[in-house]
Amino acid sequence: ELKKQISCSLQLTNKSDDNVAFKVKTTSPKKYCVRPNAGIVLPRSTCDVIVTMQSQREAPPDMQCKDKFLVQSVIIDQTATTTYITTEMFAKETGNVVDEVKLQVTYVSPPQPPSPVPEGSEEGSSPRPSVSENGNLNSSELLTVSILHDRFMHTFFWRALLI
């Protein structure tokens, strides 16, 4: 929706017996606020990350969006704290084993209110298909994407970004 901040939740689940550090990056850091953008997920637990898109003044042409997110994760020492997390930990060039998941942002139009039944229409006629039946998400549905790596499972719950 225009002129409105929109937030969604990203849930990271650690299925391993190790501590896992994560970092979330975006191609449009001025457009999105990610909190926390880095942290540690303890063994067999989850961490919720909130992604907030700043309010937009106008809809993009053709509702196309090239924004992306990158979620990186690495196994870390059991005694490490969040102050231990550094950019170098996520650098593959130094030989670190870094799991990465890329997410593409997709805009969907807000659902339109149902039109009133015109007078004189036949009772029993098929109702107008809902937005969900047409393959689009309505604002109350969540899209779940799970990607399982050997050590870490990322589960993403994205509320539809409506513009």
From TrEMBL:
Residues 123-133 have a biased composition (Low complexity). Residues 1-108 form the MSP domain. GO terms for biological process: endoplasmic reticulum membrane organization; endoplasmic reticulum-plasma membrane tethering. PROSITE patterns: MSP. Residues 109-136 are annotated as: Disordered. It is found in: Membrane. Keywords: Membrane, Transmembrane, Transmembrane helix. It is a single-pass type IV membrane protein. GO terms for cellular component: endoplasmic reticulum membrane; plasma membrane. Its main location: membrane. Gene3D superfamilies: Immunoglobulins. Belongs to the VAMP-associated protein (VAP) (TC 9.B.17) family. This is MSP domain containing protein. It comes from Musa troglodytarum.
